[in-house]
Amino acid sequence: MTIQEALEKLQGYEKATFALNHATGLMYYDGATIAPKGTAELRGSTLGELSRMGYELTTAPETVEMLRTLMENREELDPITRRKAEELWRDYDRTHRVPVEEYVAYQELSAKSDAVWHEAKEKNDFALFEPYLQQMFDASRRMAGYWEPEKAPYETMLSTFERGLTVAQCDAFFASLREKLVPLIQQATAHADRVDDAPLHRNYPVAIQRQFSDFIMDVMDIDRDHCIIGETEHPFTTNFSRDDVRITTHYFADQVASSLYSVVHEGGHALYELHTGRELARTCLGNGVSMGIHESQSRFYENIIGRSRAFCSVLLPWLKEHFPAQLVDVTEEQFYRMVNRSRPSLIRTEADELTYCLHIMVRYELEKQMFAGTITAHDLPAAWNRLYKEYLGVDVPSDREGVLQDSHWANGNIGYFPSYAIGSAYGAQYLLEMQKDLDVEAAVRSGKLTAINRWLEEKIWKYGCMKDPVALFESVCGPFRPEEYVAYLEKKFTEIYEL
Amino acid sequence: MTIQEALEKLQGYEKATFALNHATGLMYYDGATIAPKGTAELRGSTLGELSRMGYELTTAPETVEMLRTLMENREELDPITRRKAEELWRDYDRTHRVPVEEYVAYQELSAKSDAVWHEAKEKNDFALFEPYLQQMFDASRRMAGYWEPEKAPYETMLSTFERGLTVAQCDAFFASLREKLVPLIQQATAHADRVDDAPLHRNYPVAIQRQFSDFIMDVMDIDRDHCIIGETEHPFTTNFSRDDVRITTHYFADQVASSLYSVVHEGGHALYELHTGRELARTCLGNGVSMGIHESQSRFYENIIGRSRAFCSVLLPWLKEHFPAQLVDVTEEQFYRMVNRSRPSLIRTEADELTYCLHIMVRYELEKQMFAGTITAHDLPAAWNRLYKEYLGVDVPSDREGVLQDSHWANGNIGYFPSYAIGSAYGAQYLLEMQKDLDVEAAVRSGKLTAINRWLEEKIWKYGCMKDPVALFESVCGPFRPEEYVAYLEKKFTEIYEL
């Protein structure tokens, strides 16, 4: 095959794989938002078939020949095509090692497992989910074994979601966080009475919260022609391409900050996807590069920007326009403290910025133990509850508020959680760098996040998957320094809790 | 290939085509309901690719060999497999005559055309849509030429949506309707003051209308675990399988009957799909057999049941529970007359039962002329307006309320409209047959449509595509007798308007 032929083949291959991914993504989105309840099995069957088509396309002899031709001539390719060839080869190299029937069965199992998890969570019935959970861990370990037979499976899973991340790095990172944060959390807890967020739990009608979500998306400068907001049990963002991004949230009448900050968080994911380079669109490079970089965007918007004094000062007047009675007695300073109230708690997605990483550590420890085989799915609830007591000092009253709270394991996203913590920590260094180029506080107080968006687009978003995540981060911030994140948290919460 | 091998291949083929159809269907549904505005081109590209995969699957040598093997041995097959082989062969025989690039381009054009139609309708800008409309007619005629080169293209289109239906039959049917109905409509119009439906145009909050839709779906005994209701500009029903059916409606605060009867109409479509035989599910036989039979279900529920005196007598008290103030002064008899108010009008989907078929005739005439080449898309608005004046006596004030009102042509559903009229007429004969087996009025007055559903399931729904539409209808009602439909309308409207 000539290079020219390979390049033409590549176009057809990209169109076809894009279409299959688009269809698959839409099917997940539909399932997680509006699909009728009794349709999970049907969806699983179709997802299995679509994955079979993807597998057959990726492992077809003519695809392999095309990729081989490109790889053999990679020095002659332009940088984008070269990167595509490398990424697609990597994907082929992983995929073809998995037997097709196992590959399809895994997709079907994931869909089924997700549906059972929904039901189990609703009914607070861990026993219902337990066999699926075990199967998902087993399947995940087996996949890792196929992909990189020479590597420890959990290492493979970690680097699947965050290329380059290792257990050794995570262990060191989490140990340093724990050492510094646990005493700080204990001090803040001892002075819990210094922050009262009762006004955030008054009655905030959901219909008006919905309007406020639209308003916030405007503030974030999110292009609504290419991004909608749906409702779901467990907020997430998905994207079919930079032209079609979907965020979701969940409303509670007595928790106005919950949906508000979930929209800011998911909005961060959406902005990243909406601004990946146009020249990369609908190719394997036209997405956010990794979960860690993705979470570094979403959590940067949610916490470092969204829970900053500057953002609170513009947010409160807007909120008062929508909810005048509920917030009549709240000052700017009170509001800033309220949305930053720190308290060891049960639910990760509702956790405050200070205690958040401890939630991640619980999951990380359990994933390692599951992969090591020292515990099974049956042991997970007790192990979960034990670690929550140990790390956060809280008693878990039900599995629904415990081991059943997250969808990740049900969906096979095992090894994913650490990227949340890494991503959170990255944010502190973004802020330091950003402050060198622009007056971040003034930008936030302007009432539009446009200047911040442009900085991140230029430094990070536009690259899509052109750079590996570590290289991308380092190109912006230099080496990762978790101590910056610890310093950021210490400063912020020492001040809020007057420690 | 042995029969056994062919039967195994058939299973794989069915799973794969089902998955592609499921993904395609979901993508259309999403596009018509919640997708962000700026995503039509993206969706068109993916729909094109999915259709390419379907084409390649259908025309693959191993598929053809499989189908040939089954067809050669069709006498040995069980009735379901035999029917599948015949239908799939027919599908292959049509598909492989169309060049693949033209097939894909047609799918992409449809998606694009639909998006442009939406915009053109919103802006009341026919010129925007005109080139797409012409292209859709041209493409449709070209497709018909490929499918059945020996036949007049419009005949092919008619029988694509209603197998067996011919121009001669339509001409005769419409002529007889026109002869009888036009004088009746003129009489009713002369006594228009005898029915006043002003109370239906008071303020009916959309949020409560939404609740009432859920209530109506319960009355119709629609399984909500497998059927949801969405919102869209132009109500439709779609189904991915008997396990996942989606209906849509559109709410107007000042038109309570509009969404109510659109839900009953779409509910009729949904019931049909939800009750196709379980043994046919996820195969080429697991759908309603034709548009005519489909419309005969939806319009039977909407009009013959839904606008009957019996249904009105149970409906009004329910409505009064939801909207006490709005309907306080309305009696049962008034309500019955209101929802049957007849008036020549502009919008087909809002037309009353008596004048409905004249709207269809306009479209039928124009489709014939477009296919004959005696007019072009450019001429359509004027031709439309002329026929509305001639048939219905109304002046069309804007293209939005005229030629741009329906999505069908934009989507390539050309030759589809006559099935609405045929389907409407079928209903009168269903009623006569049903009355032989059960007390229809008592069944309706019971407040649940279960008995009626069971009758239709047994006679029609469960067969899916096992019988051709004409054979299916005749197995229930004997030969088609349009005069029964005319008699039904004459009796009903003579009484309502006291003619």
UniProtKB/TrEMBL annotation, chains A, B:
Describe cofactor binding as the record notes it.
Binds 1 zinc ion per subunit.
A Gene Ontology biological process annotation?
A: proteolysis
List, separated by semicolons, the cofactors it needs. Zn(2+)
Q: Which reaction does it catalyse?
A: Release of a C-terminal amino acid with broad specificity, except for -Pro
- Active site per UniProt: E266
Q: Name the positions where Zn(2+) binds.
A: H265, H269, E295
Q: Which UniProt keywords apply?
A: Carboxypeptidase, Hydrolase, Metal-binding, Metalloprotease, Protease, Zinc
EC number(s) recorded for this UniProt protein: 3.4.17.19
Taxonomically, the superkingdom here is Bacteria
| Role this protein plays | Broad specificity carboxypetidase that releases amino acids sequentially from the C-terminus, including neutral, aromatic, polar and basic residues.
Q: What is this protein called?
A: Metal-dependent carboxypeptidase
Q: Report the source organism.
A: Vescimonas coprocola
